[in-house]
Structure formats: structure tokens, C-alpha cells
TrEMBL record:
Pfam families with a match to the protein in the record: Mur_ligase_C
Domain named Mur ligase C-terminal: residues: 1-125
InterPro entries: Mur_ligase_C, Mur_ligase_C_dom_sf, MurCDEF_CellWall_CoF430Synth
Listed name of the protein: UDP-N-acetylmuramyl pentapeptide synthase
Species annotation: Paenibacillus lactis
Organismal lineage: Bacteria, Bacillati, Bacillota, Bacilli, Bacillales
Amino acid sequence: MEKIDSSLGFTVINDAWNASPDSVSAAIKTFQELTGYRKKYLVIGDMLELGDREEEFHRNIGRSLDPREINYVYTFGELSRLIALEATKNYPVGAVKTFMDKMDLARSIKRVITENDVILLKASRGMQLDAIVPILMQ
């Protein structure tokens, strides 16, 4: 995990290098335990190369998310829509958003992120989710 503090006062935790069900669960657990931030945003992309159980693994991640610990969930990619689908069952309306375009995702985050917020980026490397970091920092 790479911690990046923005000049605008928010923090990005970039962990978009790999993603398996175990690594995503561990990252989410660590993220949930962070304290001292106003709001927490999970930005999660597809976990790739999981074989026949890929849909099940994505759904399980969505079911595991707790709105008391992570305020907003933004998903990126086709498989991650399943994360969003499951998360919407526990989250308030509007707290879970799905994107298929990285620029739309970055713009949406930039509209709401404020001082003392934290964002976790987590996805398989093939999703290239880390490409939004420079956009968020502008």
C-alpha cells in the first residue's frame, strides 16, 4: 500500500497492484480499522484471473462491506458491478456507484472528496486503476 497525501488535505492509499479475494479482504479490513478520517471511500476494480468462481468472489466482497466502516463504495469494471450490486443491499441510496470509465470515476471522486477524507484504491493490475491517482492529485 502506497500512502499519498494530497495538497488539498485528503489521503489516497494506492493498492492497485494486485487483487485476489484474500488480498482484497485484507486491504478492506485494514482500511476499516483506520481512524482519524472524516469519510472513507473504497474505490475497487475487478479482480482478474479468478476462474469459474469470479462472480462468487466479487459478490462476497460486496456482501462484506460495512457502511458503518466505509462510507462510500465506487466500483470500476464489469465484475466489480457485482460488488456494487451486493453492497447496495446494505448501503444508503447514492453511497454505492459503478463506473466503466476511469475518467468518469476520477471526476466523480473529485467532486465529493474533501479535507481529511481517505480513499483506498484496490484492483488487479490489469485494471490500471492507479492511473486515476494523478487526476485526483490535481
